[in-house]
Structures are given as structure tokens and as C-alpha cells.
Amino acid sequence: MQKQSTFIAVIAIFFFWGFMAASNGIFIPFCKEHFQLTQFQSQLIDSTFYGGYFIGSLLLFVYTYFSKKDFVIQHGYTKSFSIGLIISAFGALCMIPSLHIGSYALILLSFFVIALGFSLQQTAANPFVVLLGEERTGAHRLSLAGGINSVGTTIGPLIVAYFLFGSISGVSTQAVALKSVDTLYVMLVVLFLVLAFILRSIKIKEHSQSADQEFSFDALKYPQLKLGMIAIFVYVGVEVTIQSNMGALLNLPEYGSIPNAYLFPFISLYWGSLMIGRWTGAAEALTENKQTKKLLLIVLPFLAFALVYAVNYLKASAIPEIDINTVFLPYLGFVALMVAVAFLTIENSATMLLAFSLAAMACMIGGLLTTGNLSIMFFLSGGLWCSVMWPCIFSNAIKNLGTYASQASAFLIMMILGGAVIPPFQGWVSDMTDIKTSYVVAPLCFAYLAFYGWKVRGIKSEETSTAAVNGGH
Fold first, then answer.
1. DSSP element (H, E) containing 118
2. Residues 6+ positions from 148 with CB-CB distance below 8 Å
3. What's the rounded Cα separation, in Å, for the pair 119 and 83?
4. Residue 228 CA to chain centroid, in angstroms?
């Protein structure tokens, strides 16, 4: 019973990771308009948020390197989780005065502190979830937690749009009521603290290894890891930058001059696309029966799409200016294409990465060469193609590393820094040219990921890593 309660608390944390990451896509255009920022300046929200992940991981690395003790193992998973939640709660609390003071710098600092807490939480997440039950079902629990994370990315933009722009029955384009924003962050503070209390109050056996852990750079002698670190950097960066700059793109007349208050279905569909793709990958782990796997591979993504459509329809149906059918229903064609590519490649993670990266390149180029709804759907499909890239890259980067695998994992997690660098870089390109031209950054990123998929296809291992496609960042 204790483990079940703890698992519920942990998957709630997975939800909030997704909720906060996806909500940046709504918060960025709001801040750009509210503070009269350039596109580069508005993308600093992503820089501080994902930079917080990097700095947090770096601090843990430095602690381990000099103390010769792993922080999470030394203090325990539940205590580490609780500390991370308290740090995030403090960041959310700081957001309230930052908004009232009207300081963009303090808002960025608040995002940074929230992400610092998330970094510690994520470091403890995967091994802890595996411990909360039988080892043989650990992968299924991770898949469920990853699915909950994707639910957070899907509904997060809708909830934040509600607080920023108005009620569920209509959307106001008038000045934002700071009282509503206060309510949102007070709720987050309370929820973070409640989860921290729950985790600290439940006692379970955690320690399965010694806290003493020597750290070195020996893992970097493997080319699949070095190239994989760049791949994680590029993947996280391109996944984030597509949606973070989308608000400015959809403001263009050729895209219908969509105001910030009406961006939520597009941001939600983008992040919902990651859920669709991850549910597709989950088919491989849910059953050993080959025929059932094939059936689930086809059925699960369309069920996920139905969920994304339903939550957006409930919100948008009360707003006459929004007709989600014009984008959502034709988008089913992209979902079908993704399913077909997954069907052909899911048994080899390197081939899957190569195929998905090439498809993503083609779609990004298609978005650059078209306008209107078709162009929007091309860019939104980036979520579908990104959905399985994290585990495909991760599994190939640590392939054949043996005892260096844990060190390699730490290096790879640091490369989440890409989410802090590539979005503002695209923002700078936009300021130098225009927002649509800046989207040339996306196919260039996917070109490297295709190269990495091609490069690691020749690396053989005794165990296949196809099950890795069930997870995701």
C-alpha cells in the first residue's frame, strides 16, 4: 500500500514536469507582449528553464566528483524528491511577486529555480520508479509515468491559457488579471509541498547500492556517447524551439494573425503529438504477442489523438473564433504517416531514429515552403517525430558501455541544456530575418539526428534496445 501511494505521488510529479514544460509555449508569447520583448528575449524563458536543468545536473555531478558520493543514493530517493519539490515550490512562490513587480528578470529567475528542483527530481525518478514494485514490471511503470508526463504536456497549455487569458466559457484579450495568475502559482506551491510531505512521510526500502561512487570521464572515450551527447542537446533543443517560437509564427497574417489568447489548441496539439507517438512506442512493451503488438501499434496512437482532440474541443467549443476541426481532423493524415513509419522501424531503435529524423526534416521543409493550415500542420508534426527520439538516442548512446553506463547517463542528462540554447538562437535568427525563415533551424537539427541514427546503426549489441522507445523526455 505504501509503494502504491508513493507511486501515485511520483507520477503526479511526472505530470507537473510535462505541465510546466508545455506551458512555456503559452507563457512566452504572453511575456513578449506584456514586456514588449524581442523574439530573442522572449526565448530566454526556455534558456533559464532548461538551463536550470543543466546547472542542477552539473551541481550533482560536481558533488559526486569531489565527495565521491552520489547525492541521491546518499540521501535516499524520497528525501531527494522532497528537496527537489521544495526547491520548485520556492521558485513557484517567487513567481507571484515577480509578476506584480513587473520584472522580467525575476520571472526568469523564478523559472530557473523551479527547473533546479525538477533537475533533482528527474535524477531520482527512473531508478526510484523501478524500485516501487517488482523488477520485471519496472519498465511498465516507467511507461505509465511517461504517459502521465505526456498528459501534462497536453492539458498544460489549456490550463495556463485559462488563467492567463480568461474563463472556460470565453477568452478575454484584455489585460491579464494578476489575481488569476496568483491563483495558479499558489496552487502549484501547495501541490508541490503536499507531494513533498507525502513522499517524506512514507517509509520504504530504497537503497539497493552503495552511496560511494567514483566518477570519471572514461565513458567519453566511446564515440556513440560523444555523438549521442550532441544528439540529446540537439533533440531537446529542436523539440522545444518548434513550439516556443510558434506563437510568433501564428501571429503572422499568412497564418491568420492568431492572437496569443487563441494559441492553446496549437500548443496543446504539438505536445499532444508527443503523447501520440509515445503511446505508439508503448505497444512494444504491453504484450509479447506479435499480432496484438501490431494491433496496439495502430490503435493506441489514434486513441491518444482522440484524447487530445476531446480536451481541446471542450475548451474551444465555447469560443466562436476557434474552429479546431480545420487543423485537427486533417492532422490525422500525419498521425497515420507516423504510425506507418513506426510500424516499419520499431524493432530497431537506430533505424527508427534515422527514419523519424528524415521524416521530420521533410515536414519542416514542407512547413517552410507552404502557408496557412498546411504549413501549421507540417510544423506541428514535429511533435510526432520527436516523440520517440529521446529513448532511441539514449539507448544507442549507452550501448556496449558496460560499467560506464551510469556515468554516460549523467553526461546525457546534462545535454538537456539544448533546450536553453537552441530556442533563443532561433529567436535571434528571427530578429535578424523573420520568424518563418528562422524555422530553417529545425530541419538542420533533424539532419544531425538523422546522421546519428545512421552512424549508430552499425553498432551491434548482445541485447536489443527496442523496449527503450516506451519512454521519453
1. helix 104-131
2. 11, 12, 14, 15, 18
3. 11
4. 18
Closest to 409 in 3D by CA, of 401, 399, 400, 398? 398
Nearest residue to 258 (alpha-carbon basis) of 435, 46, 36:
435
pLDDT at position 68: 76
In one letter, which amino acid is 291?
Q
The domains of the chain are located at 2-470
Average pLDDT of the residues in 270-297: 80
Contact partners, residue 156, CB within 8 Å, separation at least 6: 18, 19, 20, 21, 22, 23, 268, 271
Per-residue confidence band for 466, with pLDDT thresholds at 50, 70 and 90: very low
Spatial separation of the C-alpha atoms in residues 54 and 51, rounded to whole Å = 5
- Taking the C-alpha atoms of residue 343 and residue 294, their distance in angstroms, rounded to an integer, is 8
Closest CA to 278 of 140, 146, 467, 419: 146
* 0.85 surpassed by pTM: no
Average pLDDT over residues 390-415: 79
Q: Which residue has the higher pLDDT, 252 or 143?
A: 252
- CATH code 2.60.120.1440 for 2-470: no
Cell numbers describing residue 17 = 514536469
